[in-house]
What does this fold into?
Amino acid sequence: MNKFKSHIMFTKQQRYGIFLLLLIIVILQYVYLFWDHTSEEISLPSDELEGFQQKIDSLKLIELEGAKPKLFPFNPNYITDFKGYSLGMTNEEIDLLHAYRAQNKWVNSAKDFQQVTGVSDSLLQQISPFFKFPEWVNQKSNVVKSSSKSSNRTLTFNEKTDLNTATAAQLQTVYGIGKTRSLGIIKFRNSFDGGFIADVQLEDVYGLTPEVIENIKSKFTVKTPRTVIKVDLNTANANDLVKIQHIDYPLAKEILDYRTLHEGFTDLDELLKVKGFPSQKLDIIKLYLAIN
It folds into this structure.
């Protein structure tokens, strides 16, 4: 017992030190509790405060202005629901535009846009400076109106102009084709030795919408297709396939894997079952293939 007691006994100096430490802790606690922590108020002249507030307000305005959606030139014929909402159009105005376009009709001016949608003058004034129409809208001399009975009549194959010999001026008589588009068609045609194989290749010309392609095909068709040696799909190797438009090495490998697994193709449309095959380009790819 004495041995255990000796371990917890303190000398007089140690007891004095412990008492002093406890006293200091108590004093510090009282100081902390009763000390005034509030900071002194900083007073500024009213004119300085007003200046600071003006700067803050101006920064807020700049930030709000930057957060507003920015408008870029756009074709009003292709306004989506979201685009229409962001422009400030009502549901009814957007629906009227979509119904008009569903009739395959086109808005060709700010005046047309207001007549079709019924938007207010103030909204039209805000958004019309950003309207961007195709070149052919401004080239009225090159636009052929389909108002007469003769223009509505479907041309026969013999009456149509050969797409492989058509000039830029002839192409510009099509509704939707201006100088840039006509030159683009000819440039694409001339990239092949012999020109187009079939009308479907117009789908590969940059910038042509389905509507414009149909307008072209109503007056033009390929009468002198270039000669193509078709590749046998059941014997072709990867190097043969990648020479065909829209087929790269990964797709060629998928085609060969499918052919091996199914012991060959029985029909060209069977390509649609190949993983990753571009279905929208099937008709163009088929121009170069055969099954012997």
User: Anything to note?
Assistant: Strands lie at 161-162, 220-221, 231-232, 289-290.
